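Dear all,

This email documents one entry for the complex benchmark we are building for the journal club exercise. For each entry we list the sequence lines for every component of the assembly. Then comes the predicted three-dimensional structure of the complex as a token string, followed by one or two observations. Please use this as the template for your own entries, and keep the labels exactly as they appear.
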Amino acid sequence: MSDPALETHAITKRYGDVLAVDNLDMRVDRGQVYGFLGPNGAGKTTTLRMLLGLAKATSGRATVLGAAPGSSEGLARIGALVEAPGFYPFLSGRDNLRVLAKQSRAPAKRIAVVLDEVGLTDRAKDRFGSYSQGMKQRLGVAAALLKDPDLLILDEPTNGLDPQGLVEMRSFIRELGRGHRTVLLSSHLMTEVEQICDRVGVISKGRLVREGTVDELRGERGLWVRAEPHDEAVRIISAMSGVERVATVGGTLRVTTDMAAAPAINAALVSAGIAVSELRPEQASLEEVFLNLTRKDEEASR
Amino acid sequence: MRNLAAELLVLRKRTSSWVLLGVWVLLSLLFSHVLPYITYSGGGGGEFQTPLSALLPAGLAANLLGGFPFFGGVFALMLGVLTVGSDYGWDTLKTLLTQRSGRFQVLGAKLAALGVGLVPFVLVIFIGGAVASLLIASAENAAVEWPSAWELIRALGAAWLILASWAAFGVMLAVLSRGTALAIGLGILYTLVIEGLLSALATQVSWLEALVQYSIRANAYSLVSTLGVGSEALSGNGPGAFSGPFVDGGQAILVLGAYVVGFLGLSAVVFRSRDIA
């Protein structure tokens, strides 16, 4: 097993009667891009705040880059953007980064590098207060990159971005994920997570309800078969053992069965002289999986 | 030191720091030199007429110090609140606390920057007052004699300590209320109303007098009175009027110092223990 960049053991956060995070066990390996999914109020941001030392866990423990959350040793190698970016509105983008470079002891030359990386060099002299939401978000990412961190924690980095900004940020995050660093990405955007993340954790009501690779989460729940003549194909497949259901959706057969049955179905159809033009596994989208998991959790808690 | 440099950059580039300094300097000079000289030169006499000697360079320290315990205190309180409280409102605290430094270091740098930031709030008043007194001396053909260096150093130190105690009070209110609006409201209410009422009632209620002897206002006024500010000048000081009880200078320094340490210590404990929302 590889070295974890961060690990939590039964970490719990309670605000009075409200249980925000409930015995959360989570592990992100070094070099991994980990997607952290969950509906609003599920406990994502609270978890990230605990990992950064901004909030103290009520119980449980966590290590981030081998150090306690919020310790100087750990923070020196972490870049973070948590919720809306927080900067001084009267300072320029560059001056805000100067302040952070001094606080984090990052070399001053990194300021120009990260401004360039997020495409803010031309507006670096302008006051942060005059920035659009997208520019504020990009400055937040620039600040997170200032220390050239080993671990990047990004909480909803695409919030408030217009479609163009969204595309740019998505490709930017994808680039970040290709490097050596570990990325913990909390996002509502399933396409983003599906495309970028190696591993995904779904949190609901403070609990981790599912964790795995994107493919593991999407799972395989049947087959799509396009074959002619259609009625004959339905008759043959329906008669096969292990097939639970055959439905026609837009001229294609949706077969509910184990994926292992695919070769047998193909062979049966071909030997019966039926032309098979398509046979592929049916996978749920990450969005469907997410909605399904959180709905189930919602129903279970009622 | 890098944390302090960062905080000084923020304080220096912040418009509200300059607005507070500008208004404080203007008001201070208006009430210490400009208006008293106008009443003096009008020759109307009356109880509010300031003697010319107080407006000349020799009376510089005593003339200026009278404005620090109350008017200067309000400005220092606001500066203290803004230095720490604004970071809650702008959400910059979470950004600062996820850099590298621990909470004590981050707060310590802010407090050190605030301490440095109070220096111009003292120096500029004294420089402005010196220029004003020189102009008055020149207009009145009066001799120009400056206070001794030791007298000036003591006055500058006392002025800074008084401002520091009010600024520390502002910091504590900002940390406790996690913002600026409530902190400034409560701070000004306390400064204008509560301490004023307590010291007014102290002459009638004996146990209250013992309590008031440990208030910021009583100790600040006592400190400046030991440096030559006459009690008659303080009792006619508008909303900041003070007529006692006075304590000796040593106690005043100790009590004000204890306020600085106490307010900042409590702020540090709360700042360290609370979650950043």
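Observations: Chain A has eleven helices and 13 strands. Residues 156 and 234 of chain A are 46 Å apart (CA to CA).
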